[in-house]
Predict the 3D structure of the following.
Amino acid sequence: MDLKNLGWNTSFAEAFAKYGEAGFIPARITSRQANLFTALSEIGELKGKVTGRMRYECAQGTDYPAVGDWVAVKGNADTGLMQIRAVLPRRTQLLRADFNKGGYLGDQVISANLDVLFVVIGLDTEVNGSNLLRFLAQANVTGARTAVVLNKIDLCGDVTAAEAAARKVAKDLPILKVSGTTGEGIGEIRKFLGPGITGSLIGPSGVGKSTIINSLLGEELLAVGEVRESDSKGRHTTTWRELVILPGGGMLIDNPGIRSFGITGDESLIATEFCDIELIITQCKFRNCQHITEPGCAIKEAIACGTLPRERFDSYLKLQAELRILGVAKQYRSRIRQENLVAAKRRKKFEDTGR
Ligand SMILES: Nc1nc2c(ncn2[C@@H]2O[C@H](COP(=O)(O)OP(=O)(O)OP(=O)(O)O)[C@@H](O)[C@H]2O)c(=O)[nH]1
Ligand SMILES: [Mg+2]
Ligand SMILES: [Zn+2]
């Protein structure tokens, strides 16, 4: 296994050097199931966990390895086992905010070191602009190239109209029209990939992400699910992430369809995704205009005369509200973390000095 075909490059080699001297080897994470990782290395496929020392050093979820990460491991070719000691700095990462009933738990790395991210939607239903926009906003902060994939063209009567609807949101991003089942247009996706290049697919459940990867693989490696007739919704068939190597070179990471979309990033997202709206707002008469009843509101005017679609402004408000909630949660988290650090120091001092 030539590491270059897996995306290894000189900057990873540089970051790895000190581990190499200490007898570690580099490996790339291909899957994660709870605490058990699988990776590819020069000595083949390895399975294992992170070392206790590394676990101790991980302050937050994003410090743990994610699919696509390069890691420094102690590996055994005979047993196929490894111990992960460190994650090498990521070139790019796809993040999501992790929530449970108690609230915001922190950011989670979905996948790492991506070169290109495909945002997939299915043309078996009408293009939902604000949904697409949310995935594009998520893609925008990864640092990877982004392309929009309109899948299931075989089920769509008017692909041109669907593309026009997607174009409004995608702006100048490439839009690829494909069918995962007939294979039409799949070559367009292939063009973005090559030896050492890593792509990933995100999008709602049931849009055909796994089907597209199977089509590129030329075999039914990944499980594919049924879509309910009643609401065209998928059933969350893919339940874990997996990096697969394509014949002819290049890699793809499959993702589960995202159920509750936890958007993450900061408010600069708003500025990049909605610069047109921010620009209009600067023309409102009042600086603190809420764009509801104020006189001289440029937003209301733009909506009335049709230059700003109402739905686009709604998506803007929705994203802004989410980011605001997230901002508060993040501050809260960092305060708790700070308190924990202080408590740990106190404990250590007590252990060291007895007081
Ligand atoms: N007609 C048609 N059906 C497709 C196409 N792509 C996928 N499907 C069907 O859509 C259903 C869902 O496909 P999956 O590949 O499981 O979708 P997914 O995006 O991976 O879904 P999750 O894993 O749940 O996120 C399956 O029944 C596929 O056969 C396509 O291009 N045309
Ligand atoms: Mg799937
Ligand atoms: Zn206004």
User: Anything to note?
Assistant: Residues 93-254 form a domain with the Rossmann fold fold (CATH 3.40.50.300). The mean pLDDT is 85. The pocket of guanosine-5'-triphosphate (ligand 1) is lined by residues 151-152, 154-155, 179-181, 205-211, 224-227, 234-238, 256-257 (CB under 6 Å).
